[in-house]
Specification:
single chain, elongated, 5 helices, alpha+beta
Length: about 250
């Protein structure tokens, strides 16, 4: 089955329960560069491999700095989060604007030109008003950030955009001020994650199309002389319960 989105989606950000911490970002986007292996010593007393060396497969992820271009505020409702308002930065890069168009070179490239005038009209009163609304009513603050895909060396010119939650800070105003201070600035991966920190990785597996059970679920092939094929599941369950369980590998 073809994936709906080619990049992983953050379904839940870390819990925001430490009010004493400084406001900080909680996610980052990277690009898979390739794989290699590392030799490491095992330090697990009682384990068979304790004080011995093992070889582990590792994936190398390239993380060019991201650029913050906006902030969005959410209010909590009985049906979950609802976005209240979004504020974008004054100057947006072409990489970000390309994502707004299907065909960049035929377009007039007018995205956000009217929006940018809000910063010059009335001394940016409209922008300040929206940020104040956000500080007053919102409980969850997330920044809109995009990658600098031109630094990766792929044949892609459109930036990948994502929302990153801001955690920490005494109240919503501290988060909004922190988010606004990042506008149009680069955020590096070492400002989000520390060295040797355990983090979750979200990715989308490479699609393999319509495959049988052996490829799809990794079941063992049957013996050579099996009647009617051997890349199958031999027994798909007992007579009763008289239906096939959802845990049986099917393709």
């Amino acid at each position: 089955k073809r994936t709906k989105r080619h990049s992983g989606r953050v379904r839940s950000f870390p819990k925001d329960d430490d009010k004493s911490a400084a406001p900080h970002l909680t996610a980052f986007r990277g690009y898979k560069a390739g794989m290699t292996h590392v030799v490491r010593g095992v330090d697990r007393p009682g384990a068979l491999m304790h004080k011995r060396e093992v070889v582990d497969a590792v994936t190398v992820v390239e993380t060019p700095p991201m650029v913050v271009v906006g902030v969005v505020g959410y209010v909590e409702t009985p049906r979950g989060l609802r976005s209240l308002t979004t504020v974008f930065a004054e100057h947006l890069s072409d990489e970000f604007k390309r994502r707004c168009y299907k065909n960049w070179y035929k377009s007039k490239r007018k995205a956000y030109t009217k929006y940018a005038k809000k910063y010059t009209e009335d001394g940016g009163k409209d922008i300040d008003h929206e940020l104040e609304r956000m500080s007053k009513f919102c409980t969850v603050i997330r920044v809109v950030a995009h990658t600098q895909v031109k630094k990766v060396g792929l044949r892609v010119k459109k930036a990948h955009i994502m929302e990153i939650q801001v955690n920490g800070g005494a109240d919503a105003k501290a988060k909004v001020d922190f988010a606004k201070s990042l506008f149009e600035k680069e955020v590096t991966v070492d400002s989000v994650f520390a060295k040797d920190e355990n983090i979750d990785v979200i990715g989308v597996s490479k699609g393999r199309g319509y495959e049988g059970v052996t490829t799809r679920w990794g079941v063992t092939r049957l013996p050579r002389k099996t009647h009617r094929g051997l890349r199958k599941v031999a027994c798909i369950g007992s007579w009763h319960p008289a239906r096939v369980s959802s845990t049986v590998p099917r393709a």
